[in-house]
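Appendix B, Record 12. Input sequence as logged:
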Amino acid sequence: MSSKIRAAIICGGMSNEREVSLKSGKQVLENLDHEKYEPLMVEITGSGQWLLHDSEPKKALTPQEDAGQQLAIRSPFEVDGNLDKPFDVAFLALHGKFGEDGGMQALLELIGIPYTGSGVLASALCMDKVKTQNMLASFEILMPSFLSLNSQNYSFENVSQKVDSQIKYPCVVKPNESGSSVGISIVKSKDELKSALEKASKEDSTLIIQQFIKGRELTCGVMGNSSQNDELQALPPVEIISANEFFDYDAKYSSQQTQEICPVQLEASMTKKIQDLSTKIHAVLGCDGLSRTDFILKDGELYFLEINTIPGMTEQSLCPKEAAAAGMSYAEFLDKLIELALKKTR
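Logged structural output:
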C-alpha cells in the first residue's frame, strides 16, 4: 500500500476568478513533490458539478459537457465512493466566492477532510472587505476612508454628495466580495461615478467607495496558523509597479509590462514594518496557513487595502515569488502549506 499523502487539488469553481483558479491548480499539480504526494485534481465546473481528474483538466467544461464525464461526482460527499482510498488533505486553489468565503471550508470540515488555508470564520471575514476594515479599524490600523452601500437600493445623488463631503475625488469603487481586481474602477469625477457603480454592481450587492491614495503598491505574505498560536513567518514583501492605472486584472495576469520587485527595495526598517503589520493583521483576523496583505505606502505611512486568504498560485502570482526570495523552492512552499493544514486539523 502506498504511503504517499493523497492530496486533492480543488480548483475551478463558479466565481469570476474561475480561469485563474484553474491555472493555480495546474501549477500546484505540477510542483507538488510526487515522491511524497499522490495528487488528484478536483475541478468544480461553472455549473457547480465536481469532477475528478487523474491529471489537469484539458479545458474548461460547459454545463452540457459536465454530465459526460466518467469520473463526475455531484458533491464532495461522493468523493470517497469514487476512490480506492479517501483524500488525506485538500489543497484549496479556489479564488473568490464559493471557494474563499468559508463555504468550501465548512463542507470540508463537515466531511472531515483537512484543508489548506484559513478556517470558516476567518475565510468569511476576510472575503467581506467592509467587515474586515471595520474589524481592523478597532486595532487602529491605518486605511483609506470608505463608505459602503447596497447596490440594489441607493440614491445616486445621495451617494454623490457623500463622496463629495467624505471621500473626495479621485476615489475607488469596488465590489465588497470579489478578487483579482474584477469590477474595480478609479473614479476621477462625478461624471464617472455612475458607470463605476453599475460596473461594480454586476459583481456584488454590496459596494465600497474608497479614498484613492497614490503611492507605492506593496504586498506581503504570512505563513502560520494563528488559531494555534504558531510563530508566524512573514515572507519578503513585493513591490508592484503596474503600467496600467492600477494593478488590475490585465496587469496581474496578461501584461508583460508589470514589474514585481521581490525583495522590495526599501530601507530595512520599512521592510520590517510591512512584515510586522502583515503578521499582526493575519493574527487579528484569525488566519491560518497562508495570507497575503496589500498596502499602499505614502509619505512613510502604510495604508491597509485588503487581505487574501487563498492567494494565487499561478506562474504570475506573488506569494510563490516571495517564498522563492525566502529561500524556499515551490515544492517546499507547497509542502509547508500542507504541513500547516494537517497540523491545524490535529
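The longest helix spans residues 268-284.
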